[in-house]
Every structure is written in structure tokens, then in C-alpha cells.
Amino acid sequence: MPHLELKNVGLTYEGKMGNVVALSDVNLTVDPGEFVALLGPSGCGKTTLLMLIAGLLKRSQGEVMIAGKTVRGPGPDRSVVFQEAGLLPWRSVVRNVEFGLEMRPRGQRQDLRARALHYVEMVGLRAFANHHPGQLSGGMKQRVNLARALVANPELLLMDEPFAALDAQTRDMMAVELLSIWERDKKTVIFVTHSLEEAVFLSDRVVVMSRRPGRIKEVVPIDLPRPRDYDTRATAQFAEYRGYLWSLIKAEAEAAEEESLTVAGSNSA
Ligand SMILES: Nc1ncnc2c1ncn2[C@@H]1O[C@H](COP(=O)(O)OP(=O)(O)OP(=O)(O)O)[C@@H](O)[C@H]1O
Ligand SMILES: [Mg+2]
Q1: Alpha-carbon distance 259 to 42, whole Å?
Q2: Which residues touch 182 (CB under 8 Å, ≥6 apart)?
Q3: What are the domain boundaries of the chain?
Q4: Which ligand has an atom closest to residue 195 CA?
Q5: What are the beta bridge partners of residue 35?
Q6: Does the CB atom of residue 13 touch ligand 1 within 6 A?
Q7: Within a 10 A sphere around the Cβ of 181, how many other Cβ atoms?
Q8: What pLDDT sits at residue 264?
Q9: What pLDDT shows up at residue 61?
Q10: Residue 147 and residue 225: Cα distance in Å, rounded?
Q11: Residue 266 gets which letter from DSSP?
Q12: What is the CA(58)–ligand 1 centre distance, in A?
């Protein structure tokens, strides 16, 4: 059975300024343990799609199913990693990670501290377990964010540009780390990114979206051998995938940029 099924999914935001059709006719099936990247220009509905899967937004059309059941709200089987780490500044690293378990019913909260520490260690922050977010670098905060999502042991990990705020080197390191966690725990991952390299490096398939309304333009399988490491990025095959993805999103990205320049221009006028 597929882990995730999207059938003719559509979402329209209704507002005072009019309606925005954010997603239309989205169809996608994701197998258990698959790593899928969502790639597309700003405003194509990537975050919206992730929120629908998380159960934090309600679809306007179609069906979102997880393990054969219709999604009706958030659940402990799914964790979301947002772009902003959103840590609680008054809590230490380990207590921020514990927060990932505190939403659970009381009966499922045994060994809170031990489980939190296990994930703190996994993301390489054991020496910082008792530090507070204000004492951490951006990359370290993002690791805490990842640990907080993993501690709940979700089957489905939904990640919205989790590494966007990081410098290029830390970002590459986090990607390698994420893959090793994924390979060990075999979770299903939906990973939103604007980076072509990140999409190719991480994924089994890249879902390329187009906008107005947000739709799936093409699904590109990435047949690079695993495990992948830094050398993977230097192969000709990697460059080929990257080039192909760029050819798919180039026109969209340019249109989006032109539009935002036009809007910016009309605002300043
Ligand atoms: N709460 C909202 N109310 C009205 N329109 C919204 C709302 N949230 C998003 N939108 C619109 O829906 C569309 C999709 O937005 P979404 O945030 O899903 O895009 P995205 O692909 O995640 O973009 P980005 O890459 O910039 O994060 C956009 O046109 C956006 O303006
Ligand atoms: Mg977004």
C-alpha cells in the first residue's frame, strides 16, 4: 500500500482580496520509505501542499490519504520541520527536543529525557544538550529542529526548506546527515527545497511544480546509486539531472522574478 496518496487535490485560499487558487489537480503517490523532493518557483504551492499532508490545512478538492486513510487533521505519525527553527529560547537544547514528545498523550511519554538525549546525540549536539538556543549557531539550531521532529519517531517526515537559512557548507553537511538518518530509520520524507543540487542529491524522485495554479509539472526519478556522498555531486550523471531540472523550472523562475519586479516597481511608484 502506498504511504501517501494525493488524488486530484486542490486548495483555494479565500480572502477579502479575492480567492487564490494555490493548488489544482495534484496527483501523487509516494511509497513507504521513499525520499521525495518538491521543487518549484516561489508561490507554486509547496508549503500549502505540505500543510495539507500535515493535516494543518483543509483541502478544497480531492483526497489526501495516508496509509489508506483520509487525512482529517494532524497526527503523531507525521512531523513537520519548518524553515524557521522556532525553538523555545528559555529551554535548553534537550528540553526543546523533549517538546517534540510533549504533544503525546501522557501514557506515551516514558523515558522522555533518554529519548530526547538519543536524538540530541544523533545530530551531533551532545556537548550542547544543556545550552540554550541563544548560545547556538544557525546550523546547530537547525539540528535541534531536526532532532525535535525525529524524536516523535514519525513515519512521515515533512520538511519545508529546512536548511535554507544555512551557509552552503553546513547545508551540505546537514544533507549528508539527513540521508544517513533516513537510510537507517527508513522514513518516508517529503522535502521542499529551492535548490536543484539538494533535490538531486537527496531524492528518489523530484516533483517539479509550476504555478498559477500550482500543479505538478513533471516527476523526475533520480537513479543515482546510494549511499550518496560528496563524490556523488561531482559525477556527470549528477550534472545531467541538475541540468534537466533547471530546464524544467527556468521559464517558471524567470516569470516569477519578472512578476515580483513588476509588483515591487508598482509599490514604489
Ligand atoms: N494564508 C493565505 N492566504 C491567501 N493566499 C495564500 C495564503 N498562503 C499562501 N497563499 C498563496 O498561495 C500560493 C501558494 O503559496 P505557498 O506558500 O504554498 O507557496 P510556496 O511554493 O511554498 O512558495 P515559497 O517557495 O515562496 O515558499 C501563493 O500564491 C500565495 O500567495
Ligand atoms: Mg513555502
Answers
A1: 11
A2: 35, 189
A3: 4-77+154-268, 90-153
A4: 1
A5: 189
A6: yes
A7: 17
A8: 66
A9: 97
A10: 27
A11: H
A12: 14
Positive/negative CA dihedral, 163, 168, 173, 176 = positive
Mind listing the pLDDT tens digit for each residue in 174-211? 899 899 889 988 899 999 999 999 999 999 999 999 98
Is the pLDDT at 151 greater than 50? The verdict is: yes
The yes-or-no verdict on residue 267 having pLDDT over 70 is: no
- The alpha carbon of 130 is separated from its chain's Cα centroid by a whole number of angstroms, namely 27
Top-level class of domain 4-77+154-268: alpha beta
All three cell numbers of 146:
531536526
d(CA 135, CA 141) in angstroms, rounded, equals 9
Is residue 96 scored above 50 in pLDDT? yes
Residue among 24, 47, 58, 215 whose CB has most ligand 1 atoms within 8 A, to mutate: 47
Q: Which residues contact 187 (CB under 8 A, 6 or more apart)?
A: 33, 154, 155, 156, 157
pLDDT on residue 266: 60
Query: Cα(40) to centroid of ligand 2, in Å?
Result: 10
pLDDT reading at 265 higher than 70 = no
CB 36 within 8 A of CB 198: no
The whole-model pTM stands at 0.90
